[in-house]
Amino acid sequence: MMEQQQTKAILVVSFGTSHADTREKNIDRIEADISVAFPDYRIYRAWTSKMILKKLKNRDGIVIDNVKEALERMESDGIRELIVQPTHVMNGIENELMTAQVRAFDGHFDEIRLGAPLLTTEQDSREAIAALEQEWKTLPENEALVLMGHGTEHYANSIYAALDYMMKDMGHENMFLGTVEAYPTLEALIRRMKKEKPVKVHLAPFMIVAGDHAKNDMSGEGDSWAARFSEEGFDVECHLKGLGEYPQIRDMFVRHVREAV
């Protein structure tokens, strides 16, 4: 058992965040749940955002490995069997770049297995919606939940529209999903709200962490989503809670690791 503990590891790969509060509530908790579920594995961390890694190092003196550095560290530590589990929401650009970096180390370990991002299968989408349903079970029918996803130019962006459609198909007519950087857009969501006429709009991030986008683009001053909805006459309430704070979402990542195992 001791030998296994020294040679088997799980590398948890996240985009990262420069906000310590949401890191502790989301990324740290996902890693902790994976550690508890797989006690025979050593847990390592890597983040993919170069900008965030640089900011943490310069501002706080905190150094976190990128994927290549983490893999080199694990090889040096004598790890032979490796599972790589991303906390990415989708199979987009970040996940493709990570996969390529991992595959470059194929000959360096006895075995490397890749876990799936959060939304990969239809089952994943249904479980994610069930997690939202549990979190928002007291949402009145005449109020709306508008979720902010990140969005990407990658074709994987279609998952947002598909998930929004599935929400309605599962009976959640007052749940909506948009993105900061792609489609569905804020403008599309505003048009929809004008048709639905909810008495209140709840804004929440559909991102692993409630970081810069949630604190600035969603709920900040100026041209934020909250400000835009308020300008259109809606009563708005913001909720700064990342997906990593949802127990069922963390359970999904644990399941993805188990499937990789």
From TrEMBL:
<dbReference type="GO" id="GO:0019251">
    <property type="term" value="P:anaerobic cobalamin biosynthetic process"/>
</dbReference>
<protein>
    <submittedName>
        <fullName>Cobalt chelatase</fullName>
    </submittedName>
</protein>
<keyword id="KW-0170">Cobalt</keyword>
<dbReference type="InterPro" id="IPR010388">
    <property type="entry name" value="Anaerobic_Co-chelatase"/>
</dbReference>
<feature type="binding site">
    <location>
        <position position="150"/>
    </location>
    <ligand>
        <name>Co(2+)</name>
    </ligand>
</feature>
<keyword id="KW-0479">Metal-binding</keyword>
<feature type="active site" description="Proton acceptor">
    <location>
        <position position="150"/>
    </location>
</feature>
<dbReference type="GO" id="GO:0046872">
    <property type="term" value="F:metal ion binding"/>
</dbReference>
<dbReference type="Pfam" id="PF06180">
    <property type="entry name" value="CbiK"/>
</dbReference>
<feature type="binding site">
    <location>
        <position position="213"/>
    </location>
    <ligand>
        <name>Co(2+)</name>
    </ligand>
</feature>
<feature type="binding site">
    <location>
        <position position="181"/>
    </location>
    <ligand>
        <name>Co(2+)</name>
    </ligand>
</feature>
<dbReference type="GO" id="GO:0016852">
    <property type="term" value="F:sirohydrochlorin cobaltochelatase activity"/>
</dbReference>
